[in-house]
Fold this sequence. Notes:
Elements: H1 2-23, H2 29-41, H3 54-71, H4 75-80, H5 82-107, H6 114-123, H7 129-135, H8 143-173, H9 178-212, H10 218-238, H11 243-260, H12 266-300, H13 304-330, H14 341-350, H15 356-363, E1 368-369, E2 372-373, H16 377-402, H17 412-433, H18 438-452, H19 459-482, H20 488-504, H21 510-537, H22 549-573, H23 579-596, H24 604-627, H25 633-653
Antiparallel strand pairs: 1-2
Helix pairs in contact: 1-2, 1-12, 2-12, 3-10, 3-11, 3-12, 3-15, 5-6, 5-8, 5-13, 6-8, 8-9, 8-11, 9-10, 9-11, 10-11, 10-12, 12-16, 13-14, 13-16, 15-16, 17-18, 17-24, 18-23, 18-24, 19-20, 19-21, 19-22, 19-23, 20-21, 22-23, 24-25
Amino acid sequence: MGMILGTILLLTAVVTANVVHLVYPKIPLSIYQIIAGILLASLPTEATNFTMHPELFMMVIIAPLMFNDGQNQSFRYLSSNYKSILSMTVALALVTVLITGGFLHAALPKTFPLALAFMLAAIVTPTDAVAVKSITTNMKVPENVNGALEYESLFNDASGIVLLDLALETYKSGQFSLGHGIWIFVYVFFGGIIFGAILGSLLISLRISLMRKHVDIGSIVIPINVMTPIVIYWLAEEFHFSGILAVVAAGVIHSILYDRMRLTSTKVQMATTTIWTIISDALNGLVFVLLGVLLPQVLGRTSWQNLGTIVALAFVIYLITTVLRFLWVRFKLVNIHSSNITRDSLLMALGGIHGTITLALAFSLPVLINNRQFNFRNSMILIAAIVILISIAVGAIGYPLLLPPKAKSYSKTEFQKELVKTVQYAINELRSSKKYSPEKALVIDQLSSQMTQYHEFNRNVYTQLMHKAQQVELATLDRLNEEDKISNREAKILVGFVTRSAFRMNKHGFLEFWVILWHRIKWRFMRQRLLNKRRHDHDNPPAHFQLTEGQRTHLASILTIINRDIDKFLHSVETPQNANEVAMVRRSYFQRKRMFSHEVSLDTDLATSLFIEAFQLEHSYVQMQLSDNQFSQELANALNEQISTDELVFAQSLD
């Protein structure tokens, strides 16, 4: 129960941090999550006393995150920029470990033997692109810098892991062979890539085989996709390859599959993307919450005398790694295709934010080495944690000073306004293109619901429209009765609906009140005359009548005529300003008609074709407005994306 409660508390902390960030997004999400973890650790419960299991942490949390990052990358970009990627992820990682470790050993030779210094340097080498994104969400990051940071964090994690393992083995044995070290690095690094690529290709072949047999369904494909990183990481580690690089390579291979299947398996791709987005956000949040939870534990095992030294070391290590990153880019040891090399060098330096892998590597340090207590473990974990906090804080301060805010060419209000116009255009075209039908009424009602979610409801406007619609309805009933198309009994039933609905409303004009009252008195008088006639024809008065199926069908046909007149009236008074209220009135009449005609079956094929036609009309409207320069390409893309999402939702509802 303690583990279950602890997991629930962790997830609650993640959700709480996300909510707070949504309300006040100026502070990076990762900082909110760390604070949530610290507060969680202060709760008076043993459920928050988590024990970090590095191997399980890497396999269950880090591997899925890296696999998902690989799935979202472009193989074309990787293949065309492999030199730059190797420069940042291998060469820079090696130089960073050698210089940082060498400085620590030279400055504190008794505290940091060379192998131990390299271990600490390897821990703080990996970067975290997710942490960078949490800071730069609302900023305009240059594409070349953003791409370089993403691909660096994708592969330099493995470099840090391999270098840490080499330093740890050297520290255990007290010996180091350069040739053996190079061979181990090549075997683990490139072996992981090749192994992951092979397994990824086999899984893709399995998926294609299933597709050819028409079994490309979510219940099979999605579980395989979610399980892939865990299985590949475990198998790669069993063969002593880099499990992280193996899952990254498998993810990149999967990205090739998605590039080739943009227009196939739409529902499965949509579901897969949604699931991985949820998994990725949750796991990233868990990492930073765990950092906040474990930070008080580590601080509690550190004396106040050593805390000042540890903080100073963390600042020095961060400064060295940041300067190295700046110089590496400034002197063009990596080509990031920069037009402003000084600015981009500074952005790349600040982008060396540490996070998930650094935390995982720190906690992966063994408690015992050669059957002796590893006394430096707690201090190294605390140094790594402080480096993470410093890198996040400096990035949160520095990036807003260097980058302009991300500004869209349209506002949220403008998007909502144009979406309403787009839907209204489709409704008007459908209304004018074909005769009235129940299927068209259903489609128009569903389309109208798209508009209501973007408008604030104006009750006064709605009440006025409803009063006028009721007057149109009463006039239609009078006309139908005069034309002998409706009996007194049917008219009485429908007038009862109208008048009861009208009197329930709070506000009535003087004329509206007397019109409604006149119709109520009129049809009550006609009802009494009808009852007197029946008493004369029959000795006993009639009991309370119930509608037969035939009468119900006839009433549904009458309501069709009434709804058509109401629809014409609403169409004549509809404007972009009252579109929401018009849709509400139209829906109330549509729902009333469905109450009488629920037994009447609809032509689903006709309704489907009308929905498809409506979506095509919406896309056409966007294209026409774009051609006429009525709004920007960015706004057109956002509208088309929204329409396409509605199409996918509708397609899923057909099953």
